[in-house]
Amino acid sequence: MKFRVEPFLWLAFSGGGVMAAMLLPVLVFLFAFAFPFGWLDPPDRAHLAAVVGHPITFLVLFGAFVMMLVHAAHRFRFTLYDGLQVKHRFLVAAACYGGAVVGAFLALHMLGSAT
Amino acid sequence: MAQSIRLRVARYRPDKDTEPGWQEYDVPLREEWTVLDGLNHVKNEVDTTLSFRWSCRMGICGSCGMNVDGAPKLTCATFLSDYAPGPVDVEPLSNFPVVRDLVVDLTDFMEKLPRVKPWIIRDDEQSVDEGEYLQTPEELDAYKQFSMCINCMLCYAACPVYGLEPEFIGPAAIALAERYDLDSRDHGTRERLDVLIEHEGVYGCTFVGECTRVCPKHVDPAAAIQRYKLKAAQESVKMFLLPRGLRR
Amino acid sequence: MSSEDLRYRPPVPVFWWTRKPSYLVFVLRELSSLFVAWLVLYLLLFVRAVGLGEEAYADFLDWATTPWLVALNVIAFAFLVLHTITWFSLTPQAMVLDVGGRRVPPAAIIGAQYAALAVVSAFVYWLVTR
Question: Of A13, A81, A82, which to mutate for an interface test with B (greatest number of B Cβ within 10 Å)?
Fold first, then answer.
């Protein structure tokens, strides 16, 4: 069978879609609304730091965030092809996945600095 | 019920027009009449120059696909009374070049279909003396849904990806590839995967799902495509992980 | 008569996706990708604030209530919900499961995903607030 990279990109897109659907709602609800607005008492910074700093949390969050970024990049790439009818296909793909790679480094840095 | 209903029909005469225009016809509004009956009334009684395709008039040949009020439909299965009081817009099927009036050029699909090898491919052919290849009802059920395709092209008319990227192989072709992949008598999955793993194959689809919504035979081509993406991904991973010797 | 190609090719309008509700939902669903990316960035900024110390943490919680940011996050959350709902409802078409010789009904696959969402959410809530 031929080797093509597209099936792997699609797998990452699918995994990221599942991560975003399962993990993001509660994280966003808590950290963008419930804690800032005091609907729930914000946790002790020390406690959050302990949770975020744990190696397993780092691995899970890093893996999940990177997959979500690849998901977003892949989907946006096709939105540009079909929605805006941008014709420079390779450039668009490079820009989208390139953005995801930049995001991955950011994630590595931010999560890493918390451990 | 009113006596008649107005059809606004797209006309395109390649020898005279540079782009399509409209022509209006009033046809009898009979309870059991379909849009196709209306068009045949026009051709027989009013304007013999109107061109359109049709054949079985019972939803099995796939010839009479057109855009009715902007939606791809089989005109033999679309009742005029559902559009009363009208007018009803009748246009050629979207996303295909128009040859004349309501007749579109389907050469693109005719070229794409054989690419997915929609026939039983076997590693070894049984001799005729050994009799037919047997199949259980369960084995038939595995692919039956995808075998119901009548090649009416409504799915191609509904698919925005096909409209924007004409090289996209399209819903019906992929559904038919899946029909054969799932057939217990077939060994051709590898060959079809090689065709459909290209960028104009399954991965061009963004799962809009409109193809499934318009299909008159409930084939669910969108499901066939997503399952094909998963199958291609699984095979790619296996090929990547297994040493050369274990790959088929 | 020459062999000139006289077929008419209708152009696809730029706003093709406004012509049918299902097309519009599709495009909105695809645009949710931008908001997923933003929400990941927001959460990373939060993680950074947690790591920087008590003051940075408190400041971030304050900053999170500024009106434009709240508006952005509300819109982003709405798109995230659209993503989750559409993702769960499309999974049965992509994944057919046969258990004990019978096809698992789509409703069961969709229900299982919502159940998993509830379990994951409950776990994260517990982990963060204990």
Answer: A82
